[in-house]
Amino acid sequence: MQSSPDMIPANVQDAIDRIPPEAWPLIDITAKITVAVALVWIFLALVAWWRRRAYNLTVASTAKRNKDAQPDFLTVDKKAREEAIARGAAHEAELTERERIEALAASSGLAKGSHFARLAALLMSLFTLACSIMGVVGNVGAMEKSVQNLTASGKIQYIISQHPIATVIIVLVIGYNVYHYFQHRKWEEA
């Protein structure tokens, strides 16, 4: 059953109207803070990505290096072997410099700010979601007749219809953090 703001029973609207006027500024402020923090997080993530791309850097966790690698020849050509070792040493120096730059970028305020903004966006999204659900569910006692007519999915649809932009941002932030958690988790093999 689809519910739209026009299909909401009068009792539900009355219960929503009973929410103290002092609470609405808090709800609006938390929604605006969530949007602002999410935008800052996205901006910092894009700047970090553009910076890595501009310097042709890879993420430190994906780079691999084998310091014990030696050229392997079937027949030893000492001159070619020495040249290959020299090229390897030059490449090693380049990798060391690249790792130093990556470590500097990872420890910069940009990376820390991006991490903090992502966590703040997640917390604000969870807080806003909890406030929305508590606001709707908390008024169940005041609207007993409407509860019988309006299902849980109808309540959620009402929240989504009243706050579509905030709902989309909340879902995206929570979804990204769940994805990020499982993608960057170091799983132990059984």
Task: Sum this structure up briefly.
The chain crosses the membrane at residues 29-50, 119-138, 158-179. The chain has 190 residues and is an all-alpha fold.
3D structure, described in words:
This protein has one domain. With 190 residues, it is an all-alpha fold.
Largest sheet: none
Radius of gyration: 27 Å
Beta-strand content bin? under 5%
Number of separate helices: 7
Order of helices and strands: HHHHHHH
**N- to C-terminal distance:** 46 Å
Write down the overall mean pLDDT. Answer: 75
- Give the low-pLDDT segments: none
Helical proportion, percent range: over 70%
The dominant shape is elongated
Structural class: mainly alpha
Count of discrete domains: 1
The tally of beta strands, per DSSP, is 0
Keywords: Membrane, Transmembrane, Transmembrane helix
Transmembrane segments: 29-50, 119-138, 158-179
